[in-house]
Design goal:
- By secondary structure, the chain is an alpha/beta fold.
- Among the domains are: 217 residues, 3-Layer(aba) Sandwich (Rossmann fold); 43 residues, no CATH class.
- It has 22 helices and 16 strands.
- The strands form four sheets. Strands 4-5-15-10-11-14 form a six-stranded mixed beta sheet, sandwiched between helices. A five-stranded parallel beta sheet has the order 9-6-7-8-16, sandwiched between helices.
- Strand 6, helix 7 and strand 7 form a beta-alpha-beta unit.
- Helix 3 packs across helix 11 and helix 17 crosses helix 19.
- The protein is globular.
Length: 501
């Protein structure tokens, strides 16, 4: 399978291994499959009784067909083993009702959905370097709004031939998310806070990828950049598998009949998670609607309502920080697909976003997107109310991001009366956000003067659910990465990691 960048038809097509190593195209575009494979109903039937590893391999093998079969299978088996995921199903379904389920994607080592892809990506990256004869050290450059950073650090820690540099908004993540990054061990890991918000960090990382002078410095020092953000196809593709797996589980449970369509509700920020659902639909999964759920940073909701993507607005810090994003990078891939791979159009729209702060798609494309996507958002009060309501009515605990998804799904049902079986993607353990969850189920008065570990213990006592071991451990570890930089200092921060190794 060959991959092309979304912005230039003159850039040569590359293999999946090259796309993984490069991360982003030299023109700033995102690598996207030239053609897509197809799963039919017979394939889905065969997967119903299979474990997650087999499902993931069936979905991913066509996308990574230049990887030897046994190498790819071994990587998938290693990534999703019991020593890495606490649930043998990797991504289990929990049913709230006959027509509604939650897909738990947070049973990996950092208690967030990013683990599903970032336990596999380092293994793909190492093999991709061999397949492309890449002898330089691969520097994984990451901007994170919360969970990607810790998952990438955990996945790439001490992986031979790699170094990882993570930038996070210094005041824009939860305390537990920050500690997961700043306490990370590993001889090849580097973490920096950035003064500003996620978009400042993400813009800075993209500049480094396309700065010819800086990339020349990289080559001279024997290094090459790649990415662990979902701009890297090797990070996005593994997420397609859990959509297929969830569908198979719902059919096997009797909640769905074979061939019936399903809705997926996805808390959305950088648009990678829901885009994986779109690719699942495109390869043959029977998807009815993809419901895009946003918090108060509702730039995506406005886009699907108007066809205008406009980042010229304040960014709000919310209780769902991984969604506090105004530039949703993976929307570029969706537009590329919806336009029939029109490189010139995508290049022009992305230039408008960079230079003017907004772009507009035409009505015909907007209508095509609306056939698949439905979008909504909710405020902070609704997040708290939703966590409380689901706990009281279903004895099920939501984190704030998943609560956004549930709240928007309720809006969707009220607006459409659609009774299609629906799966809400749960993107993080509720124990990663104990203050918000405790506010919902016990009130503010229970938190005054308590430390993070005390809040985790209180949440455990009140709910009877165990604290994920890895979260309890991180609160007792020393912080190793305390440097905070201005966006203008990001290049020098990366240089400092070279001098230290």
């Amino acid at each position: 399978m060959q991959y092309e960048t979304s912005r230039s038809s003159t850039e040569r097509q590359v293999s999946s291994a090259e796309a993984v190593v490069r991360g982003i195209g030299p023109d700033g575009g995102l690598y996207t499959p030239v053609e897509l494979p197809h799963l039919d109903q017979h394939d889905l039937l065969e997967l119903e009784g299979q474990p997650y590893v087999r499902r993931a391999y069936t979905v991913l093998a066509p996308f990574f067909d230049d990887f030897p079969e046994q190498i790819l299978l071994k990587a998938i088996e290693t990534a999703y083993g019991r020593d890495r995921f606490s649930d043998p199903d990797v991504a289990p379904l929990r049913y709230l009702s006959e027509s509604e389920a939650v897909l738990e994607l947070w049973h990996g080592p950092t208690s967030a959905f990013k683990d599903v892809a970032l336990q596999l990506l380092p293994l793909l990256m190492s093999k991709a370097a061999e397949l492309t004869a890449e002898e330089r050290k691969i520097v994984i450059l990451v901007a994170t709004s919360g969970d990607t950073g810790s998952a990438a650090l955990e996945g790439f820690s001490d992986v031979p031939g790699t170094e990882i540099v993570v930038f996070y908004p210094s005041e824009g993540v939860s305390s537990i998310q920050r500690l997961q990054m700043t306490t990370q061990e590993g001889s090849n890991v580097n973490v920096f806070g950035v003064v500003g918000d996620f978009d400042d960090a993400q813009s800075g990382v993209k500049r480094l990828f396309t700065d010819l002078g800086f990339t020349s410095e990289m080559r001279a020092s024997g290094r090459v950049f790649s990415s662990a953000n979902s701009i890297n196809w090797g990070r996005l593709a593994p997420q397609i598998a859990y959509y297929v797996s969830a569908y198979c589980d719902a059919v096997a449970s009797g909640k769905l009949r074979r061939g019936d369509k399903v809705n997926f509700v996805v808390p959305s920020g950088n648009f990678g998670n829901i885009l994986a659902g779109y690719y699942a639909l495109r390869i043959g999964l029977p998807v009815n609607r993809l419901i895009c759920a946003s918090n108060a940073n509702n730039v995506l909701t406005d886009f699907f309502a108007t066809g205008v993507y406009d980042r010229r607005r304040p960014l709000y810090r919310t209780s769902s920080p991984s969604m506090d994003i105004l530039v949703s990078s993976n929307l570029e891939r969706l537009i590329f697909e919806a336009s029939g791979h029109d490189h010139d159009l995508v290049g022009s729209l992305m230039a408008d976003l960079h230079e003017r702060g907004f772009y507009r798609i035409d009505e015909a494309m907007l209508n095509r997107l609306r056939e698949v996507f439905w979008a909504g958002w909710c405020d902070e009060e609704t997040v708290v109310d939703t966590v409380r309501d689901v706990w009281e009515n279903h004895s099920y605990l939501l984190d704030p991001h998943t609560a956004v998804g549930k709240a928007v799904y309720d809006q969707y049902q009220a607006a459409t009366r659609d009774d299609t079986f629906s799966i809400i993607l749960s993107t993080a353990s509720p124990f990663k956000f104990p203050r918000t969850v405790l506010t919902a189920i016990a009130g503010d008065g229970n938190m005054e003067g308590r430390s993070d570990i005390e809040l985790l213990q209180l949440l455990e006592r009140l709910t009877g659910q165990p604290i994920p071991e890895q979260l309890a451990l991180v609160l007792s570890q020393p912080e190793r990465h305390l440097r905070v930089v201005e966006p203008s200092e990001m290049a020098e921060a990366v240089r400092s990691t070279f001098r230290a190794t």
